[in-house]
Amino acid sequence: MSNEHGSSNGSSRDDLAIPYAWQMTHWQRLSQQHMDQKLPHALMLSGHKGIGKYHFAKALGYYLLCLSPVNQVPCGRCKGCELNLAETHPDFFVLRPEGTSRVIKIDQVRQLTEFLAKTAQQGGKKVAVIEPVEALNVNAANALLKSLEEPSGNSSLILVSHVPSQVMATIRSRCQQIAFQIPTSEESLAWLTPLAVGQDPVYLLGCAGGAPLAALDLLNGDALEQRQSLATGLLSLSDSSRSALELAAELQRGEPLPVVESLMQWLQLGLKRQVTEEVSVGNSVEDQLLALIGTIPSAIVYRFWDKIVAVKRQLLSSANPNKQLLLEELMMDWQALTRQSVQVSQSRQQVMNGLL
User: Fold this and answer.
1) Which of the residues 46, 206, 251, 306 could staple to 161 if both were Cys, CB 3.0 to 4.6 A apart?
2) What pLDDT digit, counting tens, does each position of 126-167 carry?
């Protein structure tokens, strides 16, 4: 498996997934537990999406299956590493939603159960990675419990969660919890800058909420253009030059989750500017949007924030919410609160003009 978003200098070891620099504290602790034969059979890696948890899970799986690790990383030369390089290791199992589905189904968990029940073909461990574990539907989650309670043979299960609060408590309680924090700006920029050729890495990192892998993903496709288009659309609702339903219909052509996450980020930045009384000095569409949010009373922003959080939970759940209705409600609520803010601002300006 190639090092995700990484580079290779020709060494076979460099072609295997190894942890990112900001993950080394967790890596050293878990690798030491493995060497001491004290590594729990089930781990849950949790934290913000886009910081490399799945990458870490794969790296740990490769390390556990390596026959002769060197300096706490896979050697890259043994039979286990060769199989992982070819992505054909029979004792490594990855469980993720199939195709365009957002759900991990019970039939997939049954395949995992069968895998765990078999003897390791290479005579060592068996490793299974599940990502994201919150994608398990109810039946699939219940089917996984037995494997977590009584793992077969010498098996390790590595669960990855972006929203651990959405994971069944009975699953969480059976795993050792490993919480990953967003890397520092310095760590993220040191990794991102050489890869973000022709783009401002600070801007990309800001767009991704500080998550470096998510920042790099923005360079794929038209993600940045869609973000600018969304900001323009939100501004157009505030001055009544566009209807909420029209914008919602346009946004429905894509995925609603990036819309929700962008809104959340802009609200956070706008609230931060209110607290710090920072004045926007830019003329970009996003600067204008943040300036607008800065004029909205914080109590109203927080109520809208609660609505957005509820919408995000629905989108991330294993249910199938009506995306059109969710987007229409969000856009109508946004239009209502920004229009009110604009009207209040205009009234204040009229009063000031009358006093001068």
Assistant:
1) 46
2) 999 999 999 999 999 999 998 898 777 789 999 999 999 999
